[in-house]
Amino acid sequence: MQYDYKVGTILNPQAPADSFEAKQPYMDNGTAVADKRRYFSPEFMALEWDRLWTRTWLIAAVSSDLPEVGCYSVFDIGRESIIVTRTPEGVRAFYNACSHRGTRLVNDQMGNKLRFVCPFHSWRFSSQTGELLAITDEETFRPEVICERPGLTPVTCEEHAGIIFINMRDDPPPLLESIGLPEGYLEAYNIGQMKVIRHISTEWEANWKIGIEAFYETYHLHAVHPETRWVMGDVNVQYDLYPNGSSRMIVPLAQMSPRIKDQTSMNEGLEGMLLEAGVDPADYAGDATGVRLAIQQAKRKRAERLGLDYSKLVDGQLTDSWATGLFPNVQIGCHPEGVFLMRFLPHPKDPERFYYDTMTLFLPADDPNYTAPAWMGVPEGMDTSGTVRPELERFAVGEDGNLGLVLSQDSALLPIVQAGIHSRGFKGQLWGEQEQRLRHFDAELERYIREEK
Ligand code: FES
Ligand SMILES: [Fe+2]
To answer: How far apart are CA 398 and CA 202, in angstroms?
Structure first.
């Protein structure tokens, strides 16, 4: 088979050059093999903390979790903990450490408070400004100890497209420039109107980058997730690289993998997808090759009927997964019904563990037949109305996080990858062009580690 890696797959050759769908020009990140110690060395982990995590924009929360003034949410990353709060002037963030003796001030995941009271000696702080409001037994302090009225230390915080970002560095570069995606790309999905209907954090036995890398390609689908071949393209995926380490893959859904010989006979998976889009498979006269288009048309009509705004989405976005990676540790599976936001969070101490934090956000609609599509992995009977924000569910290593089949397959695989990387016989990863997002991610990471960013 002929394969021109500089072209790769273009899903819609008719897409105008300035549309979000357009294939991005090839970016050459070379062919070098990265040092494998970055996946397990404590020294490299420390470098990442100093040069990457504390210097880059990170997703700390989603806007719909802080709907009102006083709402706060805690974001834990490595050994750090950061409080994000909503104020009348917008979102603000503070380090989650009491200025008296350092105690972690807020110890629940989210809530609504205008004041934070420290659990150790009850110093009080404003959730809005971080200001120190009251010192217990103030008269017992010598004035010079407390004369600065030390409040909470602020962290730069900005909201964009329904997502809240923080940056721990003193002089962060502009957020939108760092995100690297074209203007309007994320906004098109109305994430700000979506509600978290499920939030899970599971601990995996692998380095956080092994996690990212497994989700940045579809090359492994035939081996690890063979069941996806009935409803998902895998070799015919459009990979796009954006500035500053961001990237995207468009994974065509509602069509079979090109690895399947018979492309026309219908299968259960495709029938299920028709049904979700409101098309009774018994009424569908076409063959398997027409399902993707039929679903796009049905969803467009349904959106009009339900008053959902799909105006900024092209047809491909109605069916396909636009899996969009924001450097360094996020992938957002973007769909019109909702998005699947995954964060790969480093363990505080162990380079060979990470937390896989996933939020399922759903755009509720006023129709009892309109439910979350199966790819969202929402268990049957779960509340998708968005009226109640479910608690974060945490699962330790070895516990079944009820992630669904595909993610369980990944969580079983990753420790095997991590184990093999240690072998004296393994020299470093060899990335193909279906893995160009990995190379792109790694090139950006390298710039941080070399302190060029
Ligand atoms: S450590 Fe917070 S009040 Fe003492
Ligand atoms: Fe996978």
So the answer is: 9
Say if ligand 1 is within 6 A of residue 120 CB.
yes
Ligand 1 atom nearest residue 121's Cα: 3
Query: In whole angstroms, how far apart are CA 358 and each of 57, 153, 185, 212?
Result: 18, 28, 21, 13
Ligand index nearest the alpha carbon of residue 331: 2
125's enclosing H/E stretch is strand 124-126
Closest CA to 80 of 347, 417, 302: 347
Element (H, E) at 272: helix 268-276
Confirm or reject: Cβ of 123 under 6 Å from ligand 1. Answer: yes
In this structure, the residue with its CA closest to atom 1 of ligand 1 is: 101
pTM summary value: 0.97
In short, whether 125's Cβ falls inside 6 Å of ligand 1 is no
Give the distance (Å) from ligand 2 centre to CA of residue 224.
6
Render pLDDT for 148-174 as a digit per residue (tens, 0 to 9): 999 999 999 999 999 999 999 999 999
- ∠ CA 240-296-317, rounded to 5°: 25
CATH of 58-171, one of 3.20.10.10, 1.10.10.10, 2.102.10.10, 3.30.750.24: 2.102.10.10
Walk across the sheet containing 124-126 and list its strands: 115-117, 124-126, 132-134
Cα of 134 vs centre of ligand 1, distance in Å, is: 11
In this predicted model, what pLDDT tens digit does every residue of 102-130 receive, in sequence order? Answer: 999 999 999 999 999 999 999 999 999 99
E strand map for 279-337: 321-326, 330-334
Query: Which residue's alpha carbon is at the smallest distance from atom 4 of ligand 1?
Result: 121
- For the chain, the domains span 36-55+183-449, 58-171
Ligand 1 pocket test: which of 95, 98, 141 has the largest number of ligand atoms within 8 Å of its C-beta? 98
Instruction: Give the pLDDT band of residue 1 (cuts 50, 70, 90).
Output: low
Task: Specify whether the CB–CB gap between 121 and 113 falls below 8 A.
Answer: no
**The residue count for the chain:** 453
Give the Å distance between the CA of 119 and the centre of ligand 1.
7
Q: How far is the CA of 215 from the centre of ligand 2 (A)?
A: 6
Torsion of CA 345, 177, 174, 50, to 10 degrees: 40
Put the strands of the sheet holding 110-112 in their side by side order.
Answer: 58-62, 163-167, 154-160, 90-95, 80-87, 71-77, 110-112
Q: Are 341 and 358 in contact (CB under 8 A)?
A: yes
Give distance in angstroms: CA of 413 to centre of ligand 2: 9
**Is 132 near ligand 1, meaning CB less than 6 Å away?**
no
Class level of CATH domain 36-55+183-449: alpha beta
